[in-house]
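Dear colleagues,

For the upcoming journal club I promised to circulate an example of a predicted protein-ligand complex. I picked one with protoporphyrin IX containing FE because it came up in last month's discussion. The inputs are reproduced below in full, followed by the predicted structure.
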Amino acid sequence: MTPEHIELVKSTVPVLRENGVALTSYFYKRMLNNSPELKNVFNLDSQNSGRQPRALAAAVLAYAENIENPSVLAKAIEHITTKHVSLDIQPDQYAIVGDNLLHSISEVLNVPFESELIAAWKAAYLQLADILIGVEKQKYNNLSEQTGGWAGWRPFKITQIEASESGKIFTVEASDAQAILSAAPNQFISVKVKVPNQELEQPQQFVLSAASDKQYQFEVKAVENRTEYSVANILLENYHVGDQVQLTAPQAK
Ligand code: HEM
């Protein structure tokens, strides 16, 4: 980025932050309209939607503010990339998010898309995206190089469902019957289910309650104010022993 780019970006962060809600709601709607396949990636549960794009846009603004000193954001980058890897986020998706975010910034700031200001924001976004993509690549490699490890989604079969105090404990084994990455309780996985009666999948994270080299266990608790996209309720109501779900590899929080 040129010094002029950096100045342009930093001078518009406060305005964007003040209009944070407009920025994120416009961004999220625009993105899911233009790229409906991402409805399988973002959790559409109304209790979550809004929170996620807000966090995403806030992280881009925080990065832009600290653009001369990205090490300030090292902790945030670790957190974001762990989350992204648990959802199998891929490099090509960064272009889609970036395009929608830049259009939303241009809308909120009321400046033409083909302007020096948006070019500056593009440079900032690409710089951050490059960092995230690089760290995520390392994490995917690291997970797939370990014994029983894998990157992305892997089919698992539900082998047991038992009642627990406040929900049900699901036990799952890899459908390919091959080794699975050893994990410690309190590590988390993402579980992806099919939304009943829709051509749609939805992911959600669960904490492991037990793990061996053959199976993982996690507790599922029904959520109140559920929607048709509430993964926990879908698991509790529609999934049975013998059914298949998709899992990403366990990671530490
Ligand atoms: C520079 C670009 C990006 C930044 C700064 C960013 C930042 C973030 C942040 C801060 C969170 C919230 C983490 C948490 O507290 O749980 C998040 C979550 C998420 N991001 Fe990104 N992200 C970027 C790109 C992407 C891309 C390209 C995708 C794929 C389409 C994506 C998909 C998601 C999803 C699905 C979540 C939800 C996690 C959850 O279940 O809460 N992000 N991102």
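Two points we might discuss: Residues 3-145 form a domain with the Globin-like fold (CATH 1.10.490.10). The pocket of protoporphyrin IX containing FE is lined by residues 38, 41-43, 52, 55-56, 59-60, 80, 83-84, 87, 89, 93-94, 97, 125, 128-129, 132 (CB under 6 Å).

See you all on Thursday,
B. R.
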